[in-house]
Amino acid sequence: MTEPLNKKQKRAHYRQAQKENGITALPRKKFYRQRAHANVFSDHNLVYPKSPDHMDWSSYFPAFVANADPATETSLANEANLPSRKLTKEVEVVDIGCGFGGLLVALAPALPDTLLLGMEIRTSVAEYVQHRITALRTQNPDTDLYKNIGCLRANTMKFLPNFFRKGQLTKAFICFPDPHFKHRKHKARIVSTTLNSEYAYVLRPGGIVYTITDVEDLHNWMVRHLEAHPSFERIPEEAQEADPCVEIMKTETEESKKVERNKGQKFVALFRRLEDPPW
Amino acid sequence: MGLPFQCLSPLGNGSLFCAAKGCSILTFDLGDKSESLFSWSHPSLKQAKGANQAKETHEAPEDGSRTGQQPPSKRRKLGSDDAESNAGSEDAQGAPDTPANGEEKQKKGKAKGTPPKPEVPFVVLLTATEDGSHVIAVTGQDKTLWVFEHDGKGSLAEVSQRPMPKRPCSLALTADGQTILSADKFGDVYALPLVPKPEEGSMSTPASASSTPAPVSSQPLHGANVFHFVHSQRNRRALEDQKRQREANARRDLPKEGPKFAHEVLLGHVSMLTYVMTLNDSQNRPYIVTADRDEHIRVSRGVPQAHVIETYCLGHGSFVNALCNPRSRCNILISGGGDNELFVWDWLAGKLLDTVDLLAHVRKVLPDATKIAVVRLMAYEVDDECHVVAICERVPALFVFQLRADNTLTHGGTIELGGNALDITTLGGAHQALLVAVDATSSGGEVLVFERDGKSWVPRESIRGTIDTNELLPVSREDLDKALYTVENLRKTGNEEGDDEVAPETLEQSPETKLE
């Protein structure tokens, strides 16, 4: 039992040092490792806003906080118990299950005028990404680099509409999701017929869902389920290579690097959100 | 002991109504209160009667009504009584006890360390079509959806029984009354034809032309079983298992899941559903409104566009359990659940219009109450005024609110009852009446009848009904409470006791606490 204790102590020391010195160096993954699977059906102890209006984004994107007239803003906000500090623009790109944040960090300079949010269900991993962003911002003090990315812990399968309004997003990335091999676990897969309706809800028409995986079975599953959904159409494979985000997704996510090292295959599929049919 | 009535539903626009008591459904005529017109009991009750002498022998007589049907789907919770009937029907099918059953038992044993208690097939949901021509009921323990035809005079004839894949939590009917919407524990809403067509009997997953379509089952899966991908040892093992399973399945030629009757998944939440209802907007377009345990109220378009989510009504801080919509105010939705307040919404805009404190009024009845769980909300109109009645779990009272023209709710009165309210309904027709099913510990159950007298509800003679078969049920007060009072259990506790799979994960989740 000494082994895990030592690990715990090391983590404790690391956190303590971080507290005292502030986060200036990039965090080290070994202090943030966590079991790769999370039960998406359980309650956890999640923190999430009651509705998108209740979400306070100011701590995630401090460079984008609007300078509002404090008098009117706060009185209005207090009445409805809403956050007082609004952003100048809204989050438009999400990385669902962002893991250790490789994609976010790579996309930040590629989409400098867009706010990007990583969502991760594992506490330690989300914390790692947050520390990573803090460190990157500190290391690049004279630029606007990395001020447009943020990460929070969330169960997107349950609470996506709590964070985003209808049609708020332009891109959603689903990179190397948990394959949930067992049949009885298929309901826990991040792409399913019924969940796709929620992705369609938060994406505006023309918005794109990006998927990548190294498991062919899962790739086929995702293609089948997204293609079958009337709100999505697949973007032809020739066209998808023209999207610069695809190259970043294929090379910059932590998992894609791992697949690269192991000489595995990567399967990419993109889907466009269609207009809702007339009603 | 006498069981209380737990569900009520009017039968058409007259004075007829039906009520569920234990595993039975009775029909009554309000004009003739003396006796029930008709009663139906779950087949396992008759079985229990028969098996009473031959108990512990596991040679219960085969239940005739069941043999023609498919055996209920796998992984059911097996009560001892029903285990017998199940074994009986399975023997009739020539199928041995499947491993799935064993797995379920094993799992239960692991969780509790005690042998599974007999759970009786209580009627948990009861509703009728608008015109009263059909009654739909769900028995909880066997997850079966029953449809009865009503002859207009109180007699019910069983039309169909359909074992659902997961336990239904709420039922609704489409505007034409021909399609049942069943919302289940797993978060899915299924559409089922009210009366299944006989030729559809063998269809497993009908291709859905509308709504959220299930993708066509692919060829035998390939890909993941190619072993040169990056797989951990465990994944490899799972893949091998899956391959074996696939082969085994192919041999038996059975789809893994899916009932054998026509059904279609319309939409789904990744959360336990608590309520489903159909609404129309001012242009008479249909919508499906669903509520879940994770504080959401979702508004989806109706069939055939159920895959389009119009909006959410977000603002609840605890589970949502009850919704209602006043007929004369088609844009208004009232919701309640684990919060202290009732919420008033413009549901199509997803806009919160008002909240009104309910806990304060509950405290006047039960001074020690600190939280409430709204069981049912019901709207009715009297003299061009719109009222909403709320009942809360384990609270012996009705709370009446008035929905004003400016869409605010104001408390109009509290009617104290002799027992906890379990369900409420109204009857239209010549004399408008409010029916309340109460659980009165002393006298057993009864249905209280209130009639309109001027501005207020006045109690009339209550209705009791006795059925012999129920007296056979070995239901202790504790088990009865467990069956009747389920809403408060929806509340999130914060200290989650997950299954084996969550346990290590939750530990891992809070590194801070580990540091101490």
Structure notes:
The complex is a heterodimer of chains A (279) and B (516). Chain A contains 10 helices and 7 strands. With 279 residues, chain A is of the alpha/beta class. Chain A has a domain at 88-273: Vaccinia Virus protein VP39 (Rossmann fold, 3-Layer(aba) Sandwich), CATH 3.40.50. A 7-stranded mixed β-sheet of chain A has the order 3-2-1-4-5-7-6, sandwiched between helices. In chain A, strand 2 (115-120), helix 4 (123-139) and strand 3 form a beta-alpha-beta unit. The relative contact order of chain A is 0.13. Chain B has helices at residues 43-51, 64-67, 80-93, 99-112, 233-252, 359-365, 468-471, 477-484, 502-509, 511-515, and strands spanning 5-10, 16-21, 24-29, 38-41, 123-128, 134-139, 144-150, 156-163, 168-173, 179-184, 188-193, 264-268, 273-280, 286-292, 297-301, 309-312, 320-324, 332-337, 341-346, 351-357, 374-382, 385-392, 397-403, 409-416, 420-427, 433-440, 444-453, 456-463. In chain B, strands 1-2-3-4 form a 4-stranded antiparallel β-sheet. Chain B has a 4-stranded antiparallel β-sheet with strand order 5-6-7-8, with no helix packed on it. In chain B, strands 9-10-11-12 form a 4-stranded antiparallel β-sheet, with no helix packed on it. The longest helix of chain B has 20 residues, at 233-252. The N and C termini of chain B lie far apart (53 Å). The model of chain B is unreliable at 53-116, 200-211, 213-227 and 496-516 (pLDDT under 50). At the A-B interface, helix 1, helix 5, helix 6 and helix 7 of A face helix 5, strand 12, strand 15, strand 16 and helix 9 of B.
Q: At the fourth CATH level, what is the homologous superfamily of the domain at 88-273 in chain A?
A: Vaccinia Virus protein VP39
**Sheet with the most strands of chain A?**
7 strands, mixed
Mean model confidence by pLDDT of chain A: 88
CATH topological fold name of the largest domain in chain B: Methylamine Dehydrogenase, Chain H
Q: What spatial order of strands do you see in the largest sheet of chain A?
A: 3-2-1-4-5-7-6
Oligomer designation:
heterodimer
